[in-house]
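Re: duplicated header lines in exported structure tokens

Our pipeline writes sequence and tokens for each protein into one text file. With two proteins the header for the second block appears twice in some exports. Here is an export where it did not happen, for reference. First protein block:
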Amino acid sequence: MTTWIVLRAAGIGAYVALFLSVAWGLVATTSVVTRRVSKPTSTLFHRFISTVSVVLLGVHIGGVLLDRWMVFTLPDLLLPLRASYRPVAIAAGILAMYGTVIVLVSSWVKRWTSTRFWRALHVLAVPAFTLSLVHGLFAGTDSAQPWMWPIYAFTGSVTLFLVLVRTLTYGYRPERAPAPARVRQTVEQPTLASR
């Protein structure tokens, strides 16, 4: 029973963290955020919440493998359309998992890749979120709970709105907020070696 509770909580947590990551990624390039939050702070939050999403996803998958109520094998959770339980919804979750991991890993290795390649991979974040929404709706046992529907409706509609805003403002890059004062002081103060 504990495994069942943990895997469900981790699945919902991974979904919410993925939503926050995608939403922040879409909002972070607008003037609403860039005039108030420096790029390093914005990037740090974005990477942290993305990592939380993947860690919770790992807990969710581990819980599914350990749970004895409905038996899944590792290939069931890695190969789309192999699971016997709601194969299309499970496949959506598997594809969402791959998309999320690709986007996160591409961010970790961003300094060694071109910006164009990184951006091309980063576009997978929105389809990954959409697939995770489909997975949750049609495979999640908590989808029948009345409290889960408002979460899906809110996260789905906010993401759709932000995608539309981002699409309509494509190419517009507002000026970023300056780095926090303590960072500027550290950079501006000469070191003893340079005196």
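Second protein block, exported in the same file:
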Amino acid sequence: MQLDASHNAGLNTLRPDPTQRVVGVTGAGSTPASWVERSLAAVWHPCTQMQWHPDLPLVSIARAEGPWLTGHDGARYFDAIGSWWVCLLGHRHPAVVQALRDQLDRLDHVMLAGLTHQPVIELSERLSAMTGNVLGHAFYGSDGASAIEIAIKMSAHAWQHLGHGAKQSFVCLAGSYHGETLGALGLTDLPGFRQPYEGLVRPAYVVPNADARQAQPGEDARAVALRQVGHLEALLAEHAERIAAIVTEPLVQGAGGMIFYDPEYLRQVRALCDRYSVHWIADEIAVGCGRTGSFFACEQSGVWPDLLCLSKGISGGFLPLSIVLSRDGLYRLFLHDSASKAFLHSHSFTGNPLACSAALAVLDVLEKDQVLAANRVRAARLTARLLPVSSHPRVRHFRSLGMIWAWDVADAPADFSQQVFRAALRHELLLRPIGKTVYLMPPYLLGDHDIDALADSVAAVMKEVLA
């Protein structure tokens, strides 16, 4: 695969030399094989059955640049999934690197209880302005799951302040994923993540989703949304007095298998929440920051939630950061002379200046280089170039939105995702399917040659695996 070496919206992406070995690694156990061995001995990897290693390749990465990862052995891999959807601008974007260097010269960290600093103020103001100041207050966490924990605590606590302490239950959609801490697991409808901890988790009500693939003859995605939202309405009509909020992943349910649905569903959710006095929490951890084509996925529905969670791409993959944006009315419920009425949630690195500076640099690049507008052209080209994949007889429901592509594979074996992962590495790609669903979430800043090469490599992988 060849990489476009031209300037792509401010990023000069350099093609790694596959013959060049990584230098600067010295000492015992510095060969590529030894790094893998040491990792297998000492590191407990996430979302991984460790028993499968070393038979399933464990790739030791030494450096990264643009969309490319380079291993300790000099092999390179196009990061087609943004390293779990976080690297919006590719790896080591120079503008973000410089912002972090500048911030290190001023302030590394300071507690956010009773103190404040410029990066967290500016980031909060900019994000609020991007919602038209509908969501005017920003609360900071470390990762997506912590943002969900913050939001559900805010919701339940707010109802207590209003004298509705019975509203302590939540609603999620079938196939939803909202994180793996205990509160977030209660909102996650994926048995593999939740079942081992059922005794520790307080489960949410689960209502059918509006998966566009469920369309019946004569239906489009909007019709599916209107039909499926009836399940939510029936639930709220019966149990609204005990329900604090519904939590949704707007437009695309990611880890559940890239479930796409029509914006009409969100409009109906907003109307039902208003009618039955229930909060709507939008989990934009994966789909925010331009991934669906608009900066906030909710923008495409024309309605705003009460609480909105951001993480992953907001800091460009550089540092952990999550943010919960709140409506002013909800925020004001916590203003009181008594400390017991405050929202007493925190962690040591809340609003870290370095992470906030990285996020500000990401926003600067998106705005200055008009990245989201350029992404529409990139997306159209990649979709067209993926025709050999979308037309394969075993591919079902090829779909795309913004900078997300997904398709399902018929008659996929149990080890399908492992087969794709292995084959992708042979074709200089990092791919990690979800069950029988293959998806792409590449970095935004791709030139035409990058897009064409990515499409060709993905087609080669699918041809090999489906042969």
